[in-house]
Design a protein that fits this description.
Blueprint lengths: L2 H23 L1 H16 L4 E6 L14 E7 L3 H11 L7 E4 L13 E7 L8 H11 E12 L5 H17 L9 H6 L3 E10 L9 E9 L2
Parallel strand pairs: 1-2, 1-4, 2-3, 4-5
Antiparallel strand pairs: 5-7, 6-7
């Protein structure tokens, strides 16, 4: 088997297993604080909402009454298959699943009021391009709500993240444990309104540093 075909076969096998395992792997983290963080943040969503990297749909039932419709974007076919099971279940507002990369969103400019990214900018191949796309599809004055694990502010911890970045990326289906997402947001068209630093509960040290908050697009 050619190297390219072997790589695709591996990606398909591991991607399917990772999608099946994902919710169970995060169960303790969700139950010990992350779920509450998600719910508090998503209560701020308003109007037409786009969520990138929606994964298996952990956020789907946490959106508040201010949401008019919800577009869930997920590029991974195995994650999307599990997400599809949740999209229509007990839907209070219209929901749709779109399989597309965050760096190339198939929507017109100025379409959405709110964008959501939770534990996704660590994984997209080009996070700056993904944030630029979110700015494009948001209306002027639109808001980005985010929760992301990030590069540690402690130099020693950051060095460990750098050392383990490659093996972690291999095991965690493309997740980069050392991404400086705060810097990416700071260099974008968004103005960060609120940025809180914390820790991802019940997580291993290289993915424990966490940021959450909101950013607004200039009107």
């Amino acid at each position: 088997m050619a190297a390219g075909a072997l790589g695709k076969a591996y990606d398909a096998t591991w991607g399917r297993a990772f999608a099946r395992f994902y919710d169970r792997a995060l169960k303790a983290t969700e139950e010990n604080g992350l779920g509450e963080m998600r719910a508090a943040l998503l209560a701020e969503a308003r109007g037409r909402v786009i969520e990138i990297g929606a994964g298996t749909g952990v956020n789907v039932d946490l959106y508040g009454p201010g949401v008019e419709d919800l577009t869930l974007v997920e590029p991974d076919e195995h994650m999307a298959a599990r997400l599809r099971e949740r999209v229509g279940r007990g839907a209070r507002v219209p929901r749709r699943l779109v399989e597309a990369p965050a760096e190339a969103l198939p929507f017109a400019d100025d379409t959405f009021d709110t964008a959501v990214a939770t534990l996704v900018l660590c994984t997209v191949p080009d996070p700056a391009a993904a944030v630029t796309e979110l700015a494009r599809v948001l209306k002027p004055g639109g808001r980005l709500l985010f929760i992301e694990h990030v590069r540690s502010a402690d130099a020693g911890s950051a060095r460990w993240q750098d050392r383990f970045e490659k093996p972690w990326r291999f095991m965690a289906d493309g997740c980069h444990c050392n991404r400086d997402t705060a810097a990416t947001l700071g260099a974008s068209a968004f103005r960060v309104e609120r940025l809180e630093h914390g820790k991802l509960p019940k997580a291993i040290p290289i993915v424990r540093p966490l940021i959450s908050g909101t950013a607004v697009l200039a009107s």
